[in-house]
Amino acid sequence: MRPELARPTNDRRAGPTFTVVEHEAADVDPSGSARRPFEFVVAPHDAELVADQLFGLGASAVSERTGRDGEVVLVADLDPAALDGTSLRARELQDDPTWATAWHDSAQAWRCGDRLVVRPVWVDPGPARPGVEEVEVLLDPDAAFGSGSHPTTRLCLAALEPLAPGTTVLDVGCGTGVLGAAALVLGSTSLVAIDIDPAAVAATRSALELNGVDERAVVSATPLAEVPGSFDLVLANLLVPIIEELGPALVAHLAPGGVLVASGLLASQVDRAVAALSPLRVEAVLREEDWVALTLR
Asked: Phi-psi bin for 17: left (phi > 0), alpha (psi -120 to 50), beta?
């Protein structure tokens, strides 16, 4: 898997305490194939991007806690071979094989946009918003990369909510499948969802089946350049280097008058994304914390 195509769609919870064995990335034995938990200590402003890189390296979950000196401690399950050739400093964690599922106990439904509710299947939806006919999207995070509650996912969902009804949709880097599932639940007529990660393809198929909308979708690992046709709505919840790489192809897949939603962006990266998606023009900007989603036409 190419780590630069990682999606920031993780749900990260404080993890348990571990016995720690330190490794430089180059010193980790790559011969074993079993996943093992590793710890990464990073500056707070780097935490989101490093977490994204860990997902790109194949982590199925990433947890987060605050270290003693204010740094952020990330824990991810990885094949040791995935760390070869990276600059990451890893500390292998011992003695607790259950860390990756510990966050399930604190998972909860979350709301975004005007009507959407995204709910892991084992939790209660909680109180509805007064006077709102809510639309629910179900996820089983065991099948994916966490519950998809990262700010970039929430922003993308809020942006697509008023756009989805009656549209054909292309979801590039589909990850958990929550964006495509939401689009179809909201009334999109069809979905093409693609991701280079086979686990993401499987997760998206599962999410669509869980929500009863899989008959209107095609999910695959087809490269963007090989996807036929054009679409009313293109979703690109991707890191900015990938938007820069795929920009012309993303634009080319828009139908006349179509709309592209770009998320996965830090506020400082908006100009780069807009340049990559030229000649589209920004119609709306949504922001949460330091993250931004753009609606372009």
From this structure: beta
Name the percent of the chain in helix, strand, coil, to the closest 5.
30, 30, 40
Q: Distance between CA 110 and CA 107 in Å, rounded? A: 9
User: Residues 246, 264: contact at Cβ < 8 Å?
Assistant: no
Q: Report the distance separating Cα 32 and Cα 110, nearest Å.
A: 38
- Other CB atoms within a 10 A radius of the CB of residue 227 amount to 18
Cα atoms in the 13 Å half-sphere on the side-chain side of 137: 33
pTM of the model: 0.73
Report residue 279 as tokens.
Answer: 């000649």
Give the span between the Cα atoms of 267 and 289, in whole angstroms: 9
Confidence of residue 13 (pLDDT cuts 50, 70, 90): very low
All domains in the chain, ordered by first residue: 19-94 (3.30.70), 149-296 (3.40.50.150)
Please answer whether residues 18 and 99 qualify as being in contact, where contact means their C-beta atoms are separated by less than 8 angstroms.
yes
Q: Six-digit token pair at 146? A: 């966490």
Phi, psi dihedral angles at 208 (to 5 degrees) = -65, -40
Question: Two tokens at 274?
Answer: 């807009």
Please write the tens of the pLDDT for every residue from 176-218. 899 999 999 999 999 999 998 888 899 899 999 999 999 999 9
- Which amino acid belongs to residue 292? V
**What's the CA gap between 145 and 62, in Å, rounded?**
8
Q: Report how far residue 6's alpha carbon sits from residue 104's, in angstroms, rounded to the nearest whole number.
A: 22
* Whole-number pLDDT of residue 30: 37
Tokens (6 digits) for 265:
């962006």
